[in-house]
Design brief:
The chain has 25 helices and 23 strands. It is of the alpha+beta class. A hairpin with a 2-residue loop joins strand 19 (657-662) and strand 20. The longest helix has 36 residues, at 480-515.
Length: 761
């Protein structure tokens, strides 16, 4: 009966009993599976270990980290934008400055083993002599030196010449060089040959009518004619035979504004002397392999000490008792420019460091906010190293985006400052980031990621998982160590920012003071035309009477012109500089003082004072009565009086005869001008002598030496008209006066002054 009743109960409750049985069996299966999994191990970790045996696991993980980083940053756009902009500004400034530094200071010279090339100058009581070395001296250096493999030289004449090519007349620089100069530089012509194929390869005196073209002249003037070698062309009206074409990119001296053509030096009787009329040359030497610059310089100093004894004039001997040797690459950029560029590059580097410190702080704060997320990942089996790599991947992704932004900012900045780079650093072609700059930027990208992300990643990975997983773990606060770290970073950032702010403030103060320096002349409503004049077309003619005066007469009668004048170089013009020095003889103190005297020398027309408004201290300026047949006169400035006299009395200089324009025609001082800035807005006024243009005649020794080169004259016009209105009229007047003046370049005096300000800034 009991069994019967039990079976009836089972029959009535069969469904419930089946469910209980299924649940119990499922429980036992789960317990068995869990025990099996426990004995088998972590399946995710085992799967990763198996994949590691296949290889390329690191790539899969990095792709996973990258995808996760993208998703994470997309959820925090404000943080991502802040980091990218902050770091992009630092990288952009650094990339822009490195582009300029690389172009100006680190450029490679187109010569073989350029690091062995040196420039040698004579030196003595007044320091290195900038105007060159006589042939007799450099000849002894070459013969007696054991440190120099070869010595080459070139004349220091910087006049512009005119080449008649297939496309018309082109302005070129036309230095004469020693026959071995190209071999000294380690470069051979791409077409034809050089000047040292036959005879003496050092100072060849033959083939004076041979020339070698630069690649730019060959292509621009002759269309890249493959049969150019042997062709006869004209330079300054004289015929020359082309014997070679140099490779593309070659130039010497480097930094010339115009294309280059070279001819061999022709030595004459003057090269056998050491007098004031002796030609001077720029000397380039090549050190022997393994010889140090200091050792070669020490050797040449010993040689020069004995060479100086051959000078019969004691004053000149005192100026050439030693030598100064420099790497040729170091002579291409002035010391002031080098220091300024390096200072700006250092400032950009500090700005980048500030950005990195700022981003590090942001990454630390973000790591604190993500403690629970990092703890969960650790609890799921992620190692601390894997977490560090994940955070580094996020930092690298942000750094790459910042670099892209920085590269764009650098390009924009270089375009904005293109005019300043062209006028102040002589970078004519547009300067843009090169492959080397992009390579450095890529390195900075990785370095930025490491600097700004490694520390925050390590701090985040070392955080306690248990504390972060507790309820409210995110609000549990930050440890004392992290507080100290953040404090150090804040102090560092403020210190570096203050460094830049103080430096910038001092610079702005200097610029403000510079902007308020009195120039000594008016700049408003003045148009300046720089005329490069082919003097060979006026051989046997009086350029003053046949060109300058008729042109001035024509310009002065143009509508809207208030006054017009000519000057060899307008203030701050940097076009055609001449220097006056006395030719006193003897070794007395008075004679030495005179021979040490240097003054700026300018030829001006009488209207110049009206154009620029120069103020007279005493006496008068030139006027219409100062002609070729009248008393020769000159005007000096206050700085001249200070240097020339002991009591600084301007009136005592009046009537003094300083020089003779021609034999038997002494020139006397009739006026003293107030000082004005001549070379730079930052440089004090230098002694200056001005002579009257109408009084320069073909009989004058000054006229002969002046017109022996292609003269650059500046036309200055005061007008109330806008440049757009008056320049076409001026250009037409010049073309009527002489077709050779059609290419005259015009600018405003305000722009010339602004460029001078920009150079100092």
């Amino acid at each position: 009966m009991r069994e019967f009743l039990r079976r009836v109960w089972y029959l009535v409750n069969r469904r419930r009993m089946d469910e209980e049985l299924e649940n119990e069996m499922a429980f036992h299966r789960e317990m068995a599976a869990r025990a099996g999994r426990r004995s088998f191990g972590n399946m995710l970790r085992l799967r990763e270990q198996a994949r590691e045996a296949w290889g390329w696991t690191w790539l899969d993980r990095r792709v996973q980290d990258l995808r996760y980083a993208v998703r994470t940053l997309r959820r925090s756009p404000g943080f991502a934008v802040t980091v990218v902009v902050t770091l992009g500004l630092g990288l952009g400034a650094t990339a822009a400055m490195f582009t300029v530094v690389n172009r100006v200071l680190l450029r490679s010279m187109p010569y073989k083993d350029a690091g062995r090339l040196v420039v040698i100058q004579e030196s003595g009581r007044r320091g290195p002599l900038l105007y060159g070395v006589p042939f007799l001296d450099l000849q002894q250096w070459r013969a007696r030196s054991h440190s120099l493999e070869e010595v080459g030289f070139a004349n220091t004449n910087r006049s512009i010449s005119f080449l008649e090519g297939d496309a018309g007349t082109e302005q070129v620089d036309f230095p004469r060089v020693s026959a071995n100069l190209f071999a000294t530089l380690g470069v051979r012509p791409a077409l034809g040959h050089g000047f040292a194929e036959h005879g003496d390869s050092f100072a060849k005196t033959g083939d004076a009518d041979s020339i070698v073209l630069s690649d730019a002249v060959w292509r621009d003037a002759f269309g890249g004619d493959a049969k150019i070698v042997g062709r006869v062309v004209k330079i300054n009206g004289d015929s020359y035979t082309v014997v070679g074409v140099m490779p593309r990119g070659f130039s010497f001296p480097m930094g010339k504004a115009n294309p280059l053509v070279w001819a061999p030096v022709t030595l004459g009787d003057a090269d056998k002397t050491r007098t004031s009329g002796t030609p001077m040359y720029m000397v380039v030497g090549r050190l022997k392999d393994g010889v140090k610059l200091e050792d070669a310089e020490a050797e040449l100093k010993v040689i020069q000490a004995s060479v100086a004894k051959e000078y019969t004039d004691l004053y000149t001997r005192d100026l050439v008792t030693s030598v100064k040797m420099q790497r040729y690459s170091d002579t291409l950029v002035g010391t002031d420019v080098r220091r300024a560029l390096l200072a700006l590059f250092a400032a950009a580097g500090v700005l980048w460091l500030i950005a990195c410190v700022n981003v590090t702080g942001l990454m630390l704060a973000r790591g604190t906010a993500r403690q629970r997320e990092i703890a969960v990942r650790g609890a799921l089996g992620a190692s601390r190293w894997r977490i560090v790599l994940q955070l580094l991947t996020e930092g690298l992704l942000l750094s790459v985006a910042a670099s892209a932004l920085g590269l764009g900012l650098a390009v924009v900045a270089l375009k904005v400052f293109a005019h300043g780079l062209a006028t102040q650093l002589k970078i004519q072609a547009g300067v843009m980031p090169s492959g080397a700059v992009i390579g450095v930027l890529l390195g900075l990208t990785v370095l930025s990621a490491m600097v700004s992300s490694v520390w925050p990643a390590l701090v985040a990975a070392r955080a306690s998982m248990e504390a972060s997983m507790r309820q409210g773990g995110v609000q549990s606060g930050v440890g004392r160590a992290q507080h100290r770290v953040r404090g150090v970073m804040v102090v560092t950032q403020i210190a570096m920012s203050m460094l830049l702010l103080v430096a910038c403030g001092l610079m702005l103060r200097s610029i403000y003071a510079l902007r308020h320096v009195p120039l000594g002349f008016r700049t408003d409503h003045v148009i300046v035309g720089n005329m490069t004049i082919p003097t060979y077309k006026f051989a046997g003619k009086n350029m003053v009477a046949e060109l300058y005066e008729p042109l001035l007469e024509r310009v002065q009668h143009l509508p809207g012109v208030q006054s017009a004048a000519m000057m060899t170089e307008v203030p701050l013009g940097k076009t055609f500089n001449m220097v006056f020095s006395f030719s006193a003889e003897g070794d007395s103190a008075a004679a030495i003082r005179k021979r040490d005297f240097r003054a700026q020398f300018r030829v001006v027309s009488p209207e110049m004072q009206k154009v620029f408004g120069f103020r007279m201290l005493t006496g008068r300026f030139f006027n219409e009565g100062d002609t070729a047949g009248s008393q020769a006169v000159m005007v000096v400035n206050r700085a001249f009086v200070k240097a020339f006299t002991s009591d600084n009395d301007a009136k005592k200089v009046l009537g003094t005869s300083l020089m003779s324009l021609e034999k038997g025609r002494p020139s006397v001082v009739v006026g003293v001008l107030d000082d004005g800035r001549q070379v730079s807005v930052a440089e004090q006024a230098q002694p200056e002598i001005e002579v009257c243009l109408p009084q320069i005649t073909p009989r004058s020794g000054l006229y002969k030496s002046w017109t022996g080169m292609s003269v650059a004259m500046d036309l200055a016009v005061r007008t109330e008209l806008s440049p757009a209105a008056i320049v076409p009229e001026l250009r037409a007047a010049m073309q009527k006066a002489n077709p050779a003046l059609a290419g005259t370049k015009f600018t405003t005096m305000d722009q010339i002054v602004e460029d001078s300000y920009g150079n100092q800034q």
